[in-house]
Design a protein that fits this description.
The protein is α+β, with helices and mostly antiparallel strands. It has helices spanning 4-31, 53-59, 90-93, 98-103, 149-155, 171-179, 192-211, 225-233, 246-262, and strands spanning 33-38, 43-48, 51-52, 78-83, 105-107, 112-113, 117-121. It has 2 domains: 33-129, Roll (Ubiquitin-like (UB roll)), CATH 3.10.20; 149-262, no CATH class. β1 and β2 (43-48) form a beta hairpin. α5 (149-155) packs across α6, α5 (149-155) runs antiparallel to α7 and α7 (192-211) crosses α8 (225-233). The longest helix is centred in the first third of the chain and has 28 residues, at 4-31. It starts with a helix and ends with a helix. Mean pLDDT is 85; it is low at 138-143. It binds FE2/S2 (inorganic) cluster.
């Protein structure tokens, strides 16, 4: 008995049915909308299938920072996916590292919505919130942290995005690590060269300050030794103005400036 014709017919039929089902499924998906719940304010937005999450959030009134304009390199647009995403793609993770990855943060600019999601926004990087009744009044908690004086000096030179690209969750954490010598001074990628220079200047200022007598006498023209040290570090004051400290202090300041230039 020749089975070739019925088998070929069945195979053809299966291919046809498969194609029709695929087309139907595609059409249905295109028209489908999904819910994205934002736990910070309890809001829920409706998003088209495959819509870009960052754009959808912006369209809904969330002022999400996107320092690199959606290029997937700055990390400022990150959101934490609490439900609806099993395995992020490398693009969704982008520059995010360590703890941020473990906690489920992904780049919203690299995320297309393909199902319902529950997400958390990183509040320090959200500049505006939509009006959603009482939920809109939800408090934005200020996570103020006590920094050591040295870390505070470094922190003042950082942009404050808390983007996490340096490997630390916040600029505060990074500043503390830099002040303790545990993190590199050039780790602030979004800040670029000006911030790196600022961080180095802040650390140099601390070294210079330690070399000053600490009388706060004002003979140098600055109110405090702190201010004079910062001015010397920034190149705005010469290292020979600490009259009470005299030649030994001047030599020490010059040596530190020299060392910083070499470094
Ligand atoms: S906007 Fe920069 S990574 Fe998304």
């Amino acid at each position: 008995m020749n089975f070739a014709i019925p088998i070929a017919t069945l195979a053809g039929l299966a291919i046809f049915v498969g194609a029709v089902l695929a087309l139907l499924s595609r059409l249905l998906r295109v028209e489908k909308e999904f819910k994205v719940k934002i736990v910070n304010d309890g809001n829920e937005i409706t998003v088209d299938w495959n819509a870009n999450l960052l754009e959808a959030l912006k369209a809904a009134g969330y002022g999400i920072m996107a320092a690199c304009g959606g290029a997937g390199v700055c990390g400022t647009c990150r959101v934490k996916i609490l439900e609806g995403l099993d395995e992020p793609t490398p693009a969704q993770l982008g520059p995010l590292k360590g703890k941020l990855r473990e906690e489920g943060w992904v780049l919203s600019c690299q995320t297309q919505v393909k199902n319902d999601l529950v997400i958390e926004l990183f509040e320090p990087l959200v500049s505006a919130w939509p009006e959603v009744g009482e939920a809109a009044e939800a408090e934005v908690k200020e996570k103020e942290k006590e920094l050591s004086p040295a870390a505070q000096r470094v922190r003042e030179r950082l942009p404050g995005f808390d983007c996490g690209v340096c490997g630390y969750e916040t600029c505060d954490d990074y500043a503390e690590a830099v002040a303790e010598g545990k993190a590199p001074q050039d780790g602030c990628y979004p800040g670029g060269e000006p911030v790196v220079r600022g961080v180095r200047g802040a650390l140099l200022g601390l070294e210079l300050r330690a070399a000053l007598p600490g009388f706060d006498c004002g003979a140098c023209g600055y109110k405090t030794c702190d201010e004079y040290a910062v001015a010397v570090a920034d190149g705005q004051a010469s290292p020979d103005r600490c009259y009470p400290g005299g030649a030994p202090v001047e030599e020490r300041l010059k040596a530190l400036l020299q060392g910083a230039k070499k470094g």
